[in-house]
Amino acid sequence: MTFRLKNRDALPQCISTFQAQCPENTTTVLVSIYSGWTDEEEVRTLLCQIRSVLPEAVIVGCTTSGEIMAGTMSLRTTVVTFMAFTSTQLQAQVIDFSNVSVNDGAAEVIATCRKQDDLAGIEVLFANNNANAYAFLAAMNDLPHDLPVFGGVAGCEENGSSYVFVNDTIIRNGAVVLCFLGRDIHIQVNASQGWNPLGPWFRITAMAAENVITELDNRPANYIYEKYLAISPEDFEQEILVFPLFLERNGQQMLRHPACTTQEGAIVLHGDCRIGERVRLAYGNPAKILDALRNIHKNILYFEPQAIMIFNCSSRRFFLLDAANHELKPFENIAPSSGLYTAGEVGRTNKGEVSILNMTLVSVSFREGETLQYSNAVVQPNPSRKPLTGAMKLLQHLAHFITVTSEELEAANRQLQQLATTDRLTDLYNRGEIESILQKELSSRRQGNRQICAIMLDVDNFKMVNDTYGHAIGDAVLRRVGAALKRNIRRGDAAGRWGGEEFLIILPNCSIDTAANVAERIRTDVAKDYTLPNGEHVTVSLGVADFSEKLSYMDFYRILDDALYQAKHQGKNKVCVAAMGCQH
Questions:
Q1: Is 501 helix (H, G, I), strand (E, B) or coil?
Q2: Which one is catalytic: 327, 332, 345, 501?
Q3: To bridge 345 with a disulfide, which of 43, 206, 357, 529 should be the other Cys (CB 3.0-4.6 Å)?
Q4: For helices 102-114 and 131-139, angle between their N-to-C axes, nearest 10 degrees
Q5: What's the pTM?
Q6: Whether residue 123 lies in the annotated active site
């Protein structure tokens, strides 16, 4: 049961209403309070009122950037939700970062969780979105990856102060952790975004803190907003709402919402990043944001929840404006729902990593007992679309235009990249690209400890082929040689046309003996693959060498070229390994 309070005097009647309808077989009561009131004394009064009447209840909550109840959003109210469980137990912990280190606090929580045989889910509420939150969640990655972990960072409106609380304890620098225990409690967590990627990728090359990017591609981070969106540092906070950053982590794309920029050009984010990760701009599409929820609604329907918690990013509220309720109402059509707008959402990535999310709606569905084989059949699995109006309608059309043109531009860029790096005749890398790959591999060899070998190949008597049969036959020979190279190298190897009838194969993580065997396979494959009009077989000569960290790039190329020369000089159609003689 959920109630929206406009003042504290309304609470006693709400408690009485809940008590009158609370099932007799209730074992545990959870009271979740999402407060738009930042006055600490107001909240303490609420906590005391509830504990005086329901002393055994577990009370958990925080301040908000907006309150959610019955599919609608409100500001500067307080939403109080009573959840009565018939078999589930609750265990609450408070971690005060003023008294305990982040690592010790996380270790304490993890130790408590591991003692529970029937741990079904964990709710985490943070008082502040700072480095403590990132480190605390990172430590929780040691928990089973299929364990639902959810929650949010306390928000506040305008100049208020955020905090979290449990029972009668209020914390301004710490976390509240609530464990749901029981074999009959089922929890489903879903996360929805709906933002589209925009523009090229950038690499994070320098950071000042876990959430402060100082450089992207070795340039001041905020230059991407100035260059691509014409957003000046003076207008940064007012105009970047629609344009968060896409972050690529472990193969998954997450969103990071910029909070501000510094005089030095750094970007401060509402979430952590890491040096070496890639980011790109993103933009909001109202229709896509709402459509992204449709599959989630279907999943929730078949889960058959008895209650739903919603942790929604405050930036979504600011972006959607009057359309904000469009994404909230369908949850209430499924089960009683309540929640808050946060300064960061807690969830798990596809890899099981616990992290602060941004620009995301996290819904948490609860059910005690098994499903009733879709008892909610009266509810449509796909909620009907509500038409957007006004500025949202215009923004939807503009976002669609950007999406289509961006996809066309990316396709054209991929095609140009293919043309710029590929030899059109053989479909191998061209000289510039294969040479660049070789230099990068040799550089990585110096920095690491992996062996790198290369093969230089030359088609025997190729001038005679062109002079005798013409360039059409010569081109066919080169294509067949290129195909033989592709057939005989690994996925991580690289083959390119060095020039004319010469080819280069790069073999990372490969011993010299293995490279010699690869060269021999290629030599044999080519010799049996293509026959000239006079009945003679096309043959190739190959030189093989491995790279020593003492060599320069030019030294290595000279050794490789000398090995090829030896193969030619000793009769052609041979493999010659540098400093090891030649093989048939």
A1: coil
A2: 501
A3: 357
A4: 30
A5: 0.72
A6: no
